[in-house]
Design brief:
The complex is a heterodimer of chains A (about 675) and B (about 475). Chain A has about 675 residues and is an all-alpha fold. Chain A has 27 helices and 2 strands. Chain A is elongated, with a radius of gyration of 35 Å. Chain B has one domain. In chain B, helix 5 runs parallel beside helix 11 and helix 15 runs antiparallel to helix 18. Classes of the chains: A mainly alpha (about 675), B mainly alpha (about 475). The interface between A and B is medium-sized, with 27 and 35 residues.
Chain lengths: ~675, ~475
């Protein structure tokens, strides 16, 4: 491929964003008149074409490994602030867009089948089109985020995906607990993310203040010259943004609730793509984080603690999607810990592998849920209101009833647990190897999390697929149509063989990312760590099998073993309640104080009513009666009377006799002449 | 006399010749078809506007400087021809109502317009006088057009004629004195003599003052205004509408050209007189208007006061730096005054009854309820004449006052602003009566009248919001080579 052809390929880069936008515009304007099949096809094709474009960029990068800046338009130009909408095409952004577009395409196809059922179960088929419009919008925003060439453009994408997340969590906004649960979940996600966005914004202001630019290249070039303090501040505020978007401590509380959205949403946005934006941000800003070791250590610690905490909560959940949600938080913790340790490649590697197997798990869980719901329908039971098709205690024995779903779920689960040679093994192992070299504390935390991971995913698989069906619905569950199972199979292949991306010694992803990232450290494959983690994973699965493998009743045996600890985990460490007590209650109290005491009693009652209004009334009364009536009106009335008097006096001059008129002309002339006379004589 | 000369004078020639032809054609038009005459008169003025438009910004001299053409004359000619067309539209139904339909009305109107058009191009005092008579004499006749049924119309015509002749006498005398002092009647040549040193400055000054008196009579400034209320009141309203705009514009065309191009140095000497006349006109016109009960008389005093506003530009043009602004402000004001004033006269015509009643301000009671559209239009015209934003009148006054302030005549500006305030009293009284008192006004609704009202109301409103194009046009008038 010659240089000109490469440039032509790069010129296509904006299409990565343009295709999803085209898709959403088509569906927005004529989607209502199209059949579901067409709507779904258009949306999927748009994302598929985006994937193809990303592939072309990948091809073009083979020739120009340094990447390129593709200008789209000038955006803001104020004083020294010059921001253009340019796409940064390099190995990092292309790797991310390939993953996002690829996984999105599969999930879009799956969603055609899933949403077809879902809109009917929820009773509003008209929302089918809306779903795909939001979905395309999300992909477009995500691509803007990934290909951004400066922080502000990235922020645009960052906000865009946040908006789509909000819209899709509340997709069935009139449903949920008390008919408002889903809407509240969406609001919670949005507000929690706003706190993170606030951090991102402050970081952006600081960056502009320090470097005078928001463009990545310019900022990174002059990063060394900036002081450690300001860099630490910048990275800390960026970290706040990361904890919001990627659901880390302390802002992780929104992600489990976000499961209120339809399952493809959970798979795409809240597992595979959007939540990884935080990791992407750190990797993108790796230059800054490398220069701020204090923040990096904090990042690693936050990641590791989140990983362990979330994994422990996942152990005690019964909702099939909630288990996966906490699993996602936990796995994001792994990635954050990795990038905090400077293992950027390991972080990205795990990000991609996780996208494969977690998307797979979520989509399979969706398949399970719809299978159970269909079973509920077929079994003739009428307890639709009270029956929870997502509760694992209602499942069991689905192995024989949903064969494909079972097998792909198993692959996803084993990949998550870290069983070789599945993708999760290699990626997680790389993180653990890095941790073992850098920090014992992080290593221990992550290893514990890994054991719990194997345990909870084993627990889930055994509860759902093994044993006897624990409800009529589960007994009548049926496999889903191919439009849903085929994407599952494709994702299963990816989850199984995704490890090829960065096999030990081959290191293809490392070499690829090295083109963009300067601080890539080569971690040698650590046989001891790998072996250890494999053994731990097996142990976790074995314990799970021992406890849940042949369980017959719905009660959880672990509750007996762990006692209060299990309750604590089941209640998610009461973090929500703690936040409620610490922030929301205080906030409401403050709001009450401001509204009731400061605003109403002080400002309204006293300042306004007493101080201002009464004074004003008194002074206006004086002005009106004492001043206006007597002085002003008096003057005006007298003036008016005067002018009317003059007017009627003037009127008498208008005699109607021509002789008088002529005289007045003559008289006027006389005055003018006498003036001239006086002027000339003097 | 060459073709080029004739070409320069073409607008005047077309109107005048068309009037002569129409006089003959009209003989063959039956009495119940006089609308055709009206249409032909409009067509004639339309033709005349073509050469004006074609060479809008050109500067030409013809007949040895007797007739000149420049942006100033083009602007005024367009305005005057427009006023002529609107006057025909206003008159068409009115004449039928008052039962005074005669074809001669339109020919006389054309003759008068031809005089106004010629006045705009006058480059010589003789032409000024000729044009003045040409525009005045048909107006004398028109004022008495309703004489058969209405003795007041006859009285008005008589008064106007007598006093007009009296004033003409002053002008002729003035011209003679100027000729005696400078040896020429050509305006530019007078100026040349003046700057090269004139032997008898006193003679020239007296001549200038006499011309000022004569023209001051035409534009109706105090103390040469006495005829105005009586004539405006007595003449048929459609004639008054023409008079109040056309005759004034013609008079100001001569005044401005004479004092800027002819003897600005004299004007500098006369500045206190000019300021005094302007101030007196503003005060007298606006205060006397308050006492009027008849709307036509009120509008007469209103027209006197507006003459005062435009007259403020005369002392301002003395300063050659300000002169271009003063000229464009005066032209712009003439235009917006014409639009708003003709609109107001349109409303007056719509309410005037066949017996000549319906002219008291009290007759406007209840108009807001009975005919909201007409009342709204009238309110708009009144506001514009006061000079309230966002109407055209505000923009016009704004530029006038700015020029006055630029010329450092703060006292005059104060008088102008305060009298504007006083004028609100009588203009708003019409609005108050229309909206706040109940009554049963009889309103005449006719196609041409309504079209005129729409046009003027729209113009009043739009010029208040987008004055740019017209201002631009008024400021590009490049006054006869003197002002670049």
């Amino acid at each position: 491929m010659n240089g000109a052809a490469t440039r032509d390929l790069f010129a296509l880069a904006p299409l990565i964003i343009a295709f999803p936008i085209m898709g959403l515009v088509i569906n927005l304007f004529i989607g209502r008149r199209l059949s579901e099949r067409w709507v779904g096809t258009i949306a999927s094709a748009a994302v598929g074409l985006s994937f193809v474009t990303a592939l072309l960029q990948f091809a073009a990068l083979q020739n120009t490994p340094d990447g390129i800046r593709v200008m789209v338009a000038d955006w803001i130009s104020i004083g020294t602030l010059n921001i253009s909408w340019a796409l940064k095409i390099d190995s990092l952004s292309v790797a991310m867009s390939l993953m996002v577009a690829g996984v999105s395409t599969l999930i879009h196809i799956y969603a055609i089948g899933y949403m077809h059922e879902d809109v009917r179960l929820q009773g509003d088929p008209g929302r089918f089109t809306r779903f795909f419009i939001y979905f395309n919008l999300f992909v477009a925003a995500m691509m803007i985020l990934i290909t951004a060439d400066n922080y502000l453009m990235m922020f645009v994408g960052w906000e865009g995906v946040g908006l789509c997340s909000y819209l899709l969590i509340g997709f069935w906004y009139e449903k949920g607990k008390d008919g408002i649960g889903n809407a509240i979940a969406g609001k919670k996600a949005f507000i929690t993310n706003r706190i993170g966005d606030f951090g991102f914004l402050i970081a952006m202001f600081l960056i502009f203040w320090t470097f005078g630019s928001l463009q990545f290249d310019e900022v990174f070039q002059s990063a060394e010259g900036a002081g450690t303090t300001v860099l630490t501040l910048i990275t800390l505020f960026l970290l706040l943004g990361v904890t919001g978007k990627s659901a880390q401590i302390p802002l992780f509380v929104w992600l489990p609730d976000a499961m209120a959205g339809p399952t493809p949403v959970s798979a795409l946005i809240h597992a595979a793509t959007m939540v990884t934006a935080g990791i992407y941000l750190i990797v993108r800003s790796s230059v800054l984080f490398a220069l701020a070791p204090a923040t990096s250590n904090l990042v690693a610690l936050i990641g590791a603690v989140t990983a362990l905490l979330a994994a422990s909560i996942a152990v005690a959940q019964f909702d099939i999607k909630r288990v996966l949600a906490y699993s996602t938080i936990s796995q994001l913790g792994f990635m954050v810990a990795a990038v905090g340790l400077g293992a950027y490649v390991a972080g990205i590697f795990h990000l991609i592998a996780h996208a494969f197997f977690k998307a797979l798990l979520f989509l399979s869980s969706g398949s399970v849920i719809q299978g159970v719901e269909r079973g509920l329908h077929d079994s003739g039971q009428t307890n639709h209101e009270t029956f929870d098709p997502q509760d694992m205690r209602n499942m069991g024995g689905l192995r024989s009833r949903m064969k494909i779903t079972f097998w792909v779920y198993l692959i996803g689960g084993l990949a998550l647990a870290g069983i070789p040679p599945l993708a999760g093994f290699f990626s997680k192992d790389e993180i653990l190897a890095d941790a073992s070299e850098n920090s014992t504390l992080i290593y221990i935390l992550l290893t514990l999390a890994a054991i719990l991971t194997a345990f909870y995913i084993g627990r889930q698989i055994f509860m759902v697929f093994f044993g006897e069906p624990k409800s009529e619905a589960a007994a009548h569950a049926k496999e889903n149509p191919p439009i849903m199972t085929v994407p599952l199979l494709a994702l299963a292949v990816l989850a199984a063989f995704g490890g090829i991306l960065n096999l030990p010694t081959l290191q293809s992803l490392s070499k690829w990312l090295q083109l963009t990232l300067e601080q890539v450290q080569h971690t040698e494959f650590n046989v001891l760590v790998a072996l250890l983690s494999f053994v731990f994973a097996l142990a976790g699965l074995a314990v799970a099998w021992r406890v849940y493998g042949s369980q017959r009743d719905a009660a959880d045996p672990m509750r007996r073993f762990l006692g209060p600890l299990f309750d604590l985990w089941e209640n998610k460490y009461r973090v929500d309640e703690f936040y409620d007590w610490l922030f929301i209650k205080r906030y409401k109290a403050l709001a009450f104080t401001l509204a009731e005491i400061v605003d109403w009693r002080f400002l309204h009652d006293w300042v306004h009513d007493t101080l201002l209004a009464r004074t004003f009334q008194r002074s206006t009364r004086w002005l009106a009666e004492g001043f206006d009536l007597q002085v002003i009106d008096g003057a005006a009335n007298n003036l008016a009377r005067l002018i009317q008097g003059i007017a009627s006096r003037l009127r008498t001059l208008q005699t109607g006799y021509v002789r008088n008129y002529a005289l007045s002309i003559f008289f006027g002339l006389l005055i003018l002449m006498s003036y001239i006379l006086i002027q000339f004589s003097s | 006399m060459t073709t080029a000369d004739l070409n320069v004078a073409l607008p005047f020639i077309i109107v005048a010749a068309w009037a002569c032809i129409l006089l003959v054609i009209d003989l063959f038009i039956p009495a119940d078809r006089k609308g055709l005459t009206a249409l032909l008169a409009v067509a004639g003025m339309g033709f005349a506007s073509i050469p004006v438009l074609l060479r809008f910004e050109e500067s030409n001299r013809a007949f040895n400087g007797m007739i000149v053409q420049d942006g100033f004359s083009s602007f005024l000619q367009l305005l005057l021809l427009g006023v002529g067309v609107i006057s025909v539209a206003l008159a068409y139904d009115y004449l039928q109502r008052r039962k005074i339909v005669k074809g001669e009305y339109y020919t006389l109107l054309l003759f008068s317009v031809s005089g106004m058009v010629l006045m705009a191009q006058a480059g010589d005092l003789i032409i000024v006088f000729l044009a003045l008579e040409l525009l005045s004499v048909p107006l004398y006749v028109l004022s008495g057009f309703a004489a058969k049924s209405n003795p007041e119309s006859e009285e008005a015509a008589m008064k106007y004629f007598l006093l007009g002749a009296f004033a003409s006498g002053f002008i002729v005398y003035g011209i003679a004195l100027v000729y005696g002092a400078t040896g020429t009647t050509e305006i530019e040549a007078i100026h040349n003599v003046l700057i090269s040193g004139v032997s008898n400055l006193g003679l020239l000054t007296v001549g200038a003052v006499l011309i000022l008196v004569g023209l001051g009579f035409k534009v109706a400034v105090v103390p040469f205004h006495m005829w105005t209320p009586d004539v405006y009141d007595g003449a048929p309203s459609s004639v008054t509408a023409l008079m109040s705009v056309g005759a004034k514009a013609g008079g100001f065309a001569a005044l401005l050209r004479l004092f800027l191009a002819g003897f600005p140095e004299i004007a500098a000497n006369l500045a206190p007189i000019l300021v005094g006349v302007a101030a007196l006109t503003l005060i007298w016109g606006n205060i006397a208007a308050i006492a009027q009960q008849n709307i036509k008389r009120m509008m007469a005093y209103s027209s006197i006061s507006h003459a005062g506003y435009i007259f403020m530009m005369l002392p301002a043009i003395v300063d050659s730096d300000i002169a271009p602004d003063a000229i464009s402000a005066a032209l712009f004001y003439l235009f917006v005054y014409a639009v708003s004033n003709l609109g107001a006269w349109g409303v007056i015509l719509a309410l005037e009854r066949a017996d000549g009643g319906g002219l008291s301000i009290d007759d406007y009671a209840g108009l807001g309820e009975r005919n909201p559209g007409l009342a709204l239009a009238m309110a708009l015209f009144m506001l514009s004449l006061i000079g309230v934003p966002p109407t055209a009148g505000f923009i016009g006054k704004f530029f006038l006052f700015r020029v006055v302030l630029d010329a450092n005549m703060i006292g005059l500006a104060l008088v102008g602003v305060i009298t504007s305030l006083i004028s609100a009293y009588y203009y708003l009284r019409v609005v108050v009566v229309m909206y706040m008192r109940s009554g049963d006004p009889q309103v005449r609704s006719e196609r041409w009248l309504n079209a005129t009202l729409w046009l003027t109301a729209l113009g009043t409103f739009l010029l208040g919001i987008f004055p740019g194009p017209l201002l631009n046009l008024a400021s590009r008038t490049g006054l006869f080579g003197l002002v670049p």
